[in-house]
Each structure stands twice: as C-alpha cells, then as structure tokens.
Design goal:
single chain, about 280 residues, alpha/beta, eight-stranded mixed β-sheet, two-stranded antiparallel sheet, 8 helices, 14 strands, about 30% helix, binds iron/sulfur cluster
C-alpha cells in the first residue's frame, strides 16, 4: 500500500489501484502519474481565455490538457476529462506527447502569436510530473509557462513547478469552509495556502464562479476580496457567470446583474476585477 502525497486526500493505493483523481496509480511503495503525457486537448488559445487579463495581453498560448481532477464540483464544465464516468473512455483515446514534442509544437506556433504553453482544461497538478518536465524545457527555450489550477495540492508540489511558471490562474471557488467541503469535496485551507505561496513567486489571477444560492452572497464576496487584498490588492479577480452543466442542471444561469453586483463588491477592495461569461 502506498500513500499519495500530492493532495489533501492522501489516497492509500494498492498496486495498480487508481486514485480518486483518476490520474495517479499505486506502484510498489510509490504513487505515480497515470496520465503522464496523455493529452486529451490541445489548442492555440487567446491568453484571455485562461483567463489572464494582465499577463501578455493580446497573445496566444498552446494549451494542453490531460484527464483527471481531485475535486468533485457538480457543475464542472470539463466533466468529460475531469471526474465523470467518461474519463476512463477519454483516457484510452488520449495521445502521448513527450515533453520534447510539446516544446516543438509550441515553437512551431511562435509565428502565430504563441508565447509558450498553458497547462489547463483538467486539473494539471494531479499529473504534476508532466507539467514540471514540460515547463522546464519550455522555460529553458525562453518561452512562457502558464498554469490553470484549482490550487488543491500540497505546497511541496508547488515548489517543484514554481521555478518554471510565469503566470497562473487559480480558482478560488468560494470563501466558506462549507462550500469547499460539502459542495466541491475540497479543502479550502489547502487552496488558500497555495494561492498565498504562488503570489510570492509569479503573476497570479484568480477566478470565482458564482453559483446561485451557493456562493453568491455579498458577505462571502466581501470576505473573499478582503482576503485577496490582504495578499495584494493588485491581484486580478475574475467573477464569472455560471451556466447549468453536468450534475447541476437544476439551477438557472447566474443572473447577470448578480455577477455585476458581486464584481462591484470586490472592487471595494481590489484594483482589477473582471466579469466573465456575461
Ligand atoms: S492526487 Fe489523486 S491519488 Fe493523490 S491524493 Fe489526490 S486524489 Fe488521491
């Protein structure tokens, strides 16, 4: 039996057993990546789509995703590659792209406005070894690395990748303990620690998806934005509109005026607040 040290779940896995994230597997005394280099999505995206608004505006970035996630958000927009039953099927269809090959792809798109590689779509850090190996090569080649993450891993994983990462968008999905524990099956403290540490080392922006009647109170936004401001009031926050998806089809989309109202609340503390999906 081996214990995974990547995230708060600390799965104990027998030989060949796959972790809750569907991306790591028990092997002898270790838990290793099960999705290394297995790419399910690859696209040249505008940097604003990550979303990053204050990092290389107007540029594009090769965006790569695998499969697996350690949270259980019922509203996941990428459920086919995160935690639905379809993940096992998608994993079988994935194509292997070695880190050296990914760098070559990124370089091939330089004349199309590409600035580097973004690790995104599923939760990249449940397969952090691939992020680390690719990001090192990309960094040495003088290109940029961007990480889009739920921030739900131990700080020692962040330490392994941070020397090569130029910018991150991290989800801060809400601010109450209950919201993280009950709805997302996550660990709020691990996310806050991750954000606080990442903010010391690279450009970060944060995203909060507003779910009606779940995390949409003015009070929660006030606490969330005050906490971000306590790190740095210049950290950009994206306040984003929810649309029904996956296991959360019973709710209406977030009213646009609610998103604007909460963005205004955040602006009381933060200098850069953007609305998304409106
Ligand atoms: S990264 Fe995956 S295998 Fe490791 S503890 Fe988290 S959920 Fe379990």
């Amino acid at each position: 039996m081996a214990r995974c040290e990547v995230c708060f779940r600390h799965c104990e896995l027998k030989e060949g057993q796959i972790g809750i994230c569907k991306a790591r597997i028990g092997k002898g005394d270790n838990v290793i990546s099960y999705n290394y280099g297995l790419v399910t999505s690859l696209a040249l995206d505008p940097i604003e789509k990550k979303p990053l608004r204050r990092f290389c505006p107007g540029s594009k970035i090769i965006s790569v995703g695998s499969f697996g996630c350690n949270l259980r958000c019922p509203f996941c927009q990428n459920y086919e590659i995160s935690w639905s039953d379809e993940v096992a099927y998608v994993a079988k269809q994935a194509s292997y792209i070695a880190p050296e090959e990914l760098l070559k792809i990124a370089e091939r798109y330089l004349d199309k406005g590409n600035i580097g590689v973004a690790y995104t779509y599923n939760e990249p850090l449940v397969g952090y070894e691939y992020v680390r190996d690719c990001a090192k090569l990309v960094h040495e080649a003088g290109l940029k690395n961007v990480l889009v993450s739920n921030g739900s891993v131990e700080l020692k994983i962040l330490e392994e990748i941070i020397p090569y990462i130029d910018a991150m968008n991290i989800d801060l999905k809400g601010f109450s303990e209950d919201y993280y524990t009950k709805l997302l099956k996550g660990d709020r403290k691990q996310v806050l620690d991750f954000i606080a540490e990442a903010s010391k080392h690279c450009h970060i922006e944060l995203t909060t998806l507003i779910i009606p009647d779940e995390n949409d109170s003015v009070e929660q936004m006030r606490q969330l934005s005050a906490w971000i401001a306590s790190l740095d009031k210049k950290i950009p926050l994206h306040v984003s509109r929810f649309f029904p998806c996956f296991h959360m089809m019973d709710k209406d989309p977030t009213p646009i005026k609610k998103v604007y109202e909460l963005a205004d609340v955040a602006r009381e503390k933060l200098e850069y607040v953007y609305t998304g999906n409106c």
